[in-house]
Amino acid sequence: MTTRTLFAILWIASAAISGARAQPVAPSAIDILPWFSETFLDFRENIADAAREQRRLLVYVGQDGCPYCRQVMVSNFSQRRIVDKTRAHFVAIALNIWGDRELKWVDGRTMTEKELARALRVQFTPTILLFDENGGVVARPDGYYPPQRFEGVLDYVAGRREHREPLGAYLARTVRESASPTLHDEPFFERPPYDLSRKPGDKPLAVVFETTACKGCDELHGEAFRRPEALALLVRFDVARFALGATTPLTAPDGSATTAYAWARALQVIYTPSVVFFDASGVEVFRISAYLRPFRLASSLQYVADGAYSSEPSFQRYMQRRADALRARRTGGSVAMSA
Question: In terms of pTM, does the model score above 0.70?
Answer without folding.
Answer: yes
